[in-house]
Each structure stands twice: as structure tokens, then as C-alpha cells.
Amino acid sequence: MSDIQIVAAPPGIEGSGFFATKIDEAIGLARSYSLWPLPFATSCCGIEFMATMGSHYDLSRFGAERLSFSPRQADLLMVMGTIAKKMAPVLRQVYLQMAEPRWVMAVGACASSGGIFDTYSVLQGIDEIIPVDVYVPGCPPRPEAIIDGFMNIQKLVQTESGRRREDPKYQELLAKYGIL
Amino acid sequence: MAKVTNEELLLSLTTKFGEAIVPEGEPFGLLTVEVNRENIIAVLTYLKAELNFIHLTDITAIHYPEKEKQFYVVYHIHNLVGGIRIRVKVALATADVHIPTAVNIWDGANWMERETYDFFGIQFDGHPDLRRILNVDDMTVFPMRKEYPLEDPNRIDKKDYFFGR
Fold it and tell me: Which domains are seen in chain B, by residue range?
């Protein structure tokens, strides 16, 4: 007996030889289990991420087997570590290069709020320059916390409209950051 | 070559420059002298050319808000052959933070002076390219000066009302 679990199908109408559901839900389901994360690791949270990707915690189980080191193929930007103000334009450029749909996760205290680096040279949270979907607390967060953050991203992906970028609320959010 | 002692070094400096060299003691065995702005290049040139201080370890600055001359530029120089170091300080008035560049003596002074300018706003006259080196280009302050707060003003999660203060 195999103990592999298959994800449940989204709610829909089933009959003999057919199954009907909403395309948003089907696509959301597919997307959420094949996210390609872009690890933007600048310090110790990046080390925790390496453990998360390693065989013990194994983020691949959630469909994130394939890391994308090019923003153009990535779905999820994982910012892990202190972002100095000099790094801010680089991070913003990476975000702009990502294609829609795109999600952002701020891992750890530094990426979320500047952390212990309350100083003139450090960005006080990446949400000063790009919109963030999920914040993971911790200094650094344990791999369990990163996985929890990742599962929250998956929930977002599953429940969001397939046309997120046409949503006026989303456009307003991007406009707030000067991104079109 | 024999080791050079602090006494020999100080003697050769005072013989050459006399009153212009003000000894400040030897904290942790490191001979420290103060020189004024007019003589600094002559002293540095002499140290390198005649006394074999070929290695410029560092240039930095200090801000003493309580002193009359608030800014000190500090040179750390190393004589690798004689196994001795020296610290040379120059005091600068707050309204006039100009000092001649040492780039013509040591090429390595270039980035060190840029860093000192970046953090303290010291103007090195004659420097070929005096612009910021570590901080963001559009920074308007000199962050290591004590009149500027160390904390980032955009920080909100440490505001008092989050802690009932």
C-alpha cells in the first residue's frame, strides 16, 4: 500500500465521465503545488532556508522542488535576510522582473521590519519598496516557520482570483509602490 | 634591520619638525602625535620617504562634540621593516573641515579618504574623486557625526504606543 496522499479536488460537479469546476480553483490548485521560489538570501535566514530545502525538512514536498535563480521564471520571491539600503534598488529590480502572478514572502525579522538593524544604512522592512504577501517572524525563523509561511502562500494562491492582476485592489497596491 | 623604538621615532620626528609635532602619549604602546593641518603632508611624506613607513593602515576620523575643534582626522601608518606603527592626528575646526589629500603619498589613501568623507564629511582637498563610497549616493547626512541619530527615522514597530509607554 502506498501512503502517498493525493490532494483533494476542488469542489465541483461530478458525473459519469466528467468533472466540472471553476477554472480559478483548478488553476490555483495547480499553481499552488508547483511554485517556483526565487531565494533572495542575504544572511542567516538564508541558512535556515538551506535547511528547509534540505532532505530533512524538504520543501520539495510542497511542490517547490525547482528553485528559480532567474526572476523571470519565478512565482514566489523569498526575501531572507537584512536588506541594506544599497541593496534596495536591486531587490526592487528583481521584483519588477518577475512575471505575474507573483508573490512575495518576507522571511525573518530583518526582511519584515529591519530587525535588530535599526540604523541609517538598513532598509526597515522590504515592504517599504515592494508589496509583501506573507511575513514570517523569527530571528532567524526555524524551517517549520518558513514552511508555515510557504503554506500560507499556497493558501493565497489557491483562493485568489486567476485574474489577480486585473483586480483594482491589487492595482492600487502596486500603484502605491510606483509599480505599474 | 633592527626594530625601531617609539623613542627613536619621536626623536627623529621632533628633530625634523620641532614644535609642529605634539606627542600625545603611547596608548597600548602605539606612539600618537598630533600635527596641524599645514604640516600634515610634510610629516606624512617624511614618514614614508625617510622613515620607511610604507604602509598606510587606515585613515579615519573622530567627532568630539564637546571639543572646540570637533573633528580629528587620524592616520595609522605602519613601518613593516622596523616593526613599528604610528598614529598621527589632525584637529579640524567644525566650520572648516578641509585637509590636504594623502593620495599623492599612498594610492591606498584614495578609498580611505572617500570613506572618511562619506561618514564624517571631511573635505580632502586635491582628492581626485571625492564622493560617497559605502552609503547610498542620495544620502544627505554624514551618519557618524554625532548630531545625526543612528536610528532610521522610518522605523515604526518600536514606537512607544506599541508598548503602552
Answer: 6-144 (3.30.460.80)
Among residues B92, B36, B32, which one has the least CA distance to residue B68?
B92
Taking the whole predicted model, whether its pTM rises above 0.90 is answered as no
Instruction: Find the DSSP H helices in chain A.
Output: 23-32, 44-53, 88-97, 108-113, 143-159, 168-176
Q: A123, A124, A127, A135: best mutation site toward chain B, by most B Cβ within 10 Å?
A: A124
pLDDT along chain B (165 residues), means of 10: 86 92 92 94 94 94 93 95 93 93 94 95 94 90 87 77 80
Domain boundaries, chain A: 51-157
Find chain B residues with C-beta within 8 A of A128's C-beta: 154
What ipTM does the predicted assembly reach?
A: 0.76
Element (H, E) at A4: none
Q: Is A64 helix (H, G, I), strand (E, B) or coil?
A: coil
Q: In which element (H, E) is residue B117 found?
A: helix B109-120
| Whole-number Å distance between alpha carbons of A76 and B42 | 59
CATH of span A51-157: 3.40.50.12280
Judging contacts by C-beta atoms under 8 Å, the chain B residues touching residue A114 are 152, 155
Which residue in A has a C-alpha nearest to residue B158's C-alpha? A118
